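Teaching assistant here, posting this on the class forum so everyone can see the example we discussed in section. The complex has two components, and the goal was to see what a joint structure prediction looks like when all of them are supplied at once.
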Amino acid sequence: MMLLYTIYYEVLVYLGAQTSYGGIMIEKYPEFYKIKEMFERTGTITVDEIRKIQKITEMVHMEKEEDWYFIDNLTNYLMDNKNYQDAFFILNNCAKKFKSKYRDFFGIKLTLVRIKALVEDKKIELQINPNHDAKSYDHYELLENGWSFLESHLESIIKKQDARLINRAQEVMNEIMMGKGILEERFGRTAEDQKPKNGYGEAILDAGVIIEDITFESGSDSSKGPAGDVVAETDSTKKVDSVVNGDGVMSDDKKRRDDETVVPIEGMPEELTLETVTEQLELLEGELVNPLNDVYTHLYILLKIVKLQYDKIKLLDAEIVKKREELEKLERIFGDEVSLAGLELLTNGDTLSRKKADTQADIDFLIRNKDEHFEEFIQNKKKAQEAIDALDRG
Amino acid sequence: MEILEKDMETIKKVINNEIDIKDLPEEEVKRLITLCEAQKLNMEKRIVEKEEKITRLESEIEKYKNSIN
């Protein structure tokens, strides 16, 4: 193994791929900057891109402040979307590979990911490194054993005297403290005191419990709500799976259930749209605050709201995927600059004599119908560019 | 966490029409309300984030369309 490593290292040195402190340069992976640029522009990232970032951070050393900033934002995004696992893997890689100025920051953030996962009761796999065995602590072990590490990381960061880095580290520490508070509220301050102090109430609201994988299955009989209304009329042949974390951007964009159908609830149209779901949600929110509701009615309305919210999230995810595809298509079309003369040629193909108004109408038509006329559009654009080039040459 | 898991199961059964809300004791219903309200808040936050994503994507798309004007 050492021999292989030595050969690998020598090859890298020969290829000039080394950083000043002996790692592989990130510049050798342009994919990293492509993903970074897309993420910073759109605020979204696909599962495939996350895997690539994970792989790259495992292999390369980074030095620049902008790379640190990107990884910080990306892992914030992953945590906001409850993807603690991928956030953990990326941060773990960076805590080992990044320039030492930023390594302590990633060390602190690793604790944050683990605390957030504990608060949400999500288990995450810890990479087992033969040199550093990261134990899977439960919450009080993590806080008791990890605290001195956090303090030493913070001290090290302060010594770097970088205001931006110090401020960010302080923000992360504040979030860790909040998570610590929630866990202590829920589980008590010591290992012996394991019972929830107050059961529900504010501890649950603070923790933001998420109901995972509620499946709306068909039933042979319809059931009645509190006021004698029908809760859900279902066709026994229909089945709907509603996935809590069905984030179309995080999951494989191409994965769609072919047999996905929608169960109507109380006269809801079979085909849900963003508009209809939003309208229904507004109506139900209005019903929810009715002071005449008893607890049963209140719960009934809440469940309907949560169900519709799941549906809305699925529709929004589909919309996000659609917009990303549209953006990528437009990038291919408009990636190069095309002059007005060239655009006039798009519809005409052989003359520059069209009036601007007519040309604009044609361009608008093509954009509105771009899917249908995509190939034609691309071909005309090429012809237009060739004509412009010919004109320029005189 | 045992209490939460049991309540999640109850919620699933209610949604799937396996049990009627009216058959649940009032105390349990109040607990489920707290759970669902927390869930509702979370979902609202996620919906807002996704709508913001869509707005950002639309803004990028608009920039390209305007580039030909």
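For the discussion questions: The longest helix of chain A spans residues 295-334. The longest strand of chain A covers residues 230-232. Think about how each of these relates to the inputs above.
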